[in-house]
Amino acid sequence: MWFDEAVFYQIYPLGFCGAERENDFGETRHRLHKIAAEIPRLKELGITAVLFNPLFESERHGYDTVDFYKVDRRLGTNDELKSLVKQFHEAGIRVVLDGVFNHTGRAFPPFREVLEKRESTDYRFWFNIDFGGDSAYRDGLWYENWEGHAELVKLRLENRDLQNYLMNAVRFWIDEFGIDGLRLDVCYLLPPWFMELLRRTANEKRDDFFLVGEVIHCGNFQQNICPERLNSITGYECYKGMISAFNSNNLFEIEHSLTRLYASLPWSLYTGKRMLNFVDNHDVVRAYTALAEKRNLRNLYTLLFTIPGMPCVYYGSEFGAEGDKSDLDYRLRPCIDEVDRGAHPELVAHIAKLAKIRAEHRAFSYGSYAKATLANTNFSFVREWEGEKIIVAVNIGGGDCTVRAEEAEGTDLLTGQVRNLNDIYLPPYSCAIYKKNWPRSIRIFGHRSDLFAIGIFQEQGGDRRRDEFHDRERPPHEIHDVARQGEQVGDRKNEQAQAQKGYEQRGKRVPERLQDALNGHAERHKEIADARDANRRRNHRLNGFAALAARHAE
């Protein structure tokens, strides 16, 4: 789907446009043009989707909704939002809105009617009310709120009339404004059946509608990323892991999270799934402020754009904007006019370069993840997809280092430098993104002694292409790359040898299954070595054919 390959840009409209903190419910102001003016710049930056935080009528910050069908008068009108979405679409940029379905503001008309009419209105069933209690506002009744915030009234989603009201609002947003998706606020509090209801409603209109849930904890939410519910969730675990790892010079922390979430291991939670990743947003300290070593900002964004998932840039942070939570959250959500756009031009250029690289290499959108090397202050990992292999390396320390990933040649997608991947030199606070270069030569695919296909690997437009020289179809399950199998067997042997060592150090008997596995690896290594020798002899005999293939490649 479009969102799998998207680069998102998050905008908090009330802050971005410089709206008043309190809604006086007076005349309409017209500020959405401030966002429209940024569209050419966002397109140049490489943004393909924009995520708006709440922009419907509310009391203060947008999450205290008053009217689900009307744009906040501090921003503009429904027609102006419709025009804004159209302008984004004309620029090739998708639009995702914030869906706040867990709670509303106290000025929400159905709740106001409950305060006035109490037991006499059926709207009382839209909320969890105790008429024998009281609230912090001395209402003469108690109501459930969001996590102790009495200004946010919890909705009772089980009510069928409320469900119809909310789903009709979603249909209205799709039909009236043409939006492409929704972010579900506090999704961790929404019941699974509600996500399914929302999915069915959205799919009535379009089958590529994006649903991403806000999940702020590090628990297992994978069961909700499925065709019947959500496409994605917010990547808070990696956000926290990246900031903490950088500030403590402990890259083991973020690598642990990446393996736990995305590696191809039986216990990895989100293998093949994509979270919405970020290094800051409207609820957390700005990345530039949070980083102890500011020279690592480029490294931080390099990880954001190259780890599994969809990257999301928070407005103004591409300029190195600062912001903390000292004034509630308002310093995190400044007017775009207050941001110094010229403070860090190198960061803007780096993000644009990362977005371009990501657009040209699908391994970043769909590829597997595997750790390559790891130390406290330097780290490298591999992304692979359909034969494309990319190695990302970062050095967050003050000293230079050399990363040794594998014996092969690669091209740095950031600089164009060609280097051996076993000799990736990284100066202090630097990064590299190397794509493995496949030689313009014959590559033999066989299984044991059989030859199934002979082909050429070529570089065309940044993608690896394979031209088959035989019409005979090559059985995919029988392709045998002895070098890769040797690496895989070696990795498993090393892991199990470490396990054996652990048993012996503790004075315990090594389990028979582990000893059998180690013995089996030794035999397999011999088989692979024999196969490699056979391939070398076969290559020698096929020199004549290689010359023909070289002419074909030219």
Short description:
With 554 residues, the protein is of the alpha/beta class. Helix content is 35%, strand content 22%. The strands form seven sheets. It has an eight-stranded parallel beta sheet with strand order 13-12-11-5-2-1-15-14. It has a six-stranded antiparallel beta sheet with strand order 16-17-18-23-20-21.
Please tell me about this protein's structure.
The chain is of the alpha/beta class. The chain is 35% helix and 22% strand. Helix 11 packs parallel to helix 12 (345-360). The radius of gyration is 28 Å and the shape is globular. It starts with 7 loop residues before the first strand and ends with a helix. The model is unreliable at 441-483 and 542-554 (pLDDT under 50).
What is the helix content? Answer: 25-40%
Distance between the termini: 36 Å
Instruction: Let me know the number of strands.
Output: 26
**Spatial order of the strands forming the largest sheet:** 13-12-11-5-2-1-15-14
Strand residues, percent = 15-25%
Q: Can you count the helices?
A: 16
Which SSEs are present, and which pair or pack?
Layout: E1 8-11, H1 13-16, H2 33-36, H3 39-45, E2 49-52, E3 56-58, E4 65-71, H4 78-90, E5 94-99, E6 103-105, H5 109-117, E7 129-130, E8 142-143, E9 145-146, E10 149-154, H6 160-177, E11 181-184, H7 192-205, E12 210-213, E13 232-233, H8 236-248, H9 252-262, E14 276-277, H10 287-290, H11 297-306, E15 310-314, H12 345-360, H13 363-366, E16 368-374, E17 378-385, E18 388-395, E19 401-403, E20 409-412, E21 418-420, E22 424-426, E23 430-436, E24 442-447, E25 450-460, E26 463-468, H14 482-505, H15 512-541, H16 543-553
Parallel strand pairs: 1-2, 1-15, 2-5, 5-11, 11-12, 12-13, 14-15
Antiparallel strand pairs: 3-4, 6-10, 7-8, 9-10, 16-17, 17-18, 18-23, 19-22, 20-21, 20-23, 24-25, 25-26
